[in-house]
Amino acid sequence: MQINTYESKVVQLVNDIRRQNRLQPLAINGALTQAARRHSQDMAMRGYLDHYSPEGRSCQERARAAGYPSQFVGENIAYGSPTPEQVVQKWMDSPGHRNNILNGNYRDIGVGFYHHPTSRYKYTWTQVFGSR
């Protein structure tokens, strides 16, 4: 699965942070990328920001539906940050999001970025982490 420049930059920044903290870099996973992209787009198009869809689907369910074979999945979401650097900094400034980024049990990552100029969130981001 091809990832866009913004998504790739987020992975690079996250892996740089993980290396600085003596953690293994994360591998890009196509199923997690697909789940992250779909969630970012869904949040932007339907105007919500949540780890659960309006129908109640969790990140684990979305990852499984995209083909990721594990229940050990975590997620970071954000909105409003127009650049990878800004969104990663926002996540690192938040203890829960930081914990996901620095969780040494995760091995895989997928990042989804969606820009919707008329959405109240405008820029939506999703990171999905997993370990098979």
UniProtKB/TrEMBL annotation:
<dbReference type="Pfam" id="PF00188">
    <property type="entry name" value="CAP"/>
</dbReference>
<feature type="domain" description="SCP">
    <location>
        <begin position="12"/>
        <end position="129"/>
    </location>
</feature>
<dbReference type="InterPro" id="IPR014044">
    <property type="entry name" value="CAP_dom"/>
</dbReference>
<protein>
    <submittedName>
        <fullName>CAP domain-containing protein</fullName>
    </submittedName>
</protein>
<dbReference type="InterPro" id="IPR035940">
    <property type="entry name" value="CAP_sf"/>
</dbReference>
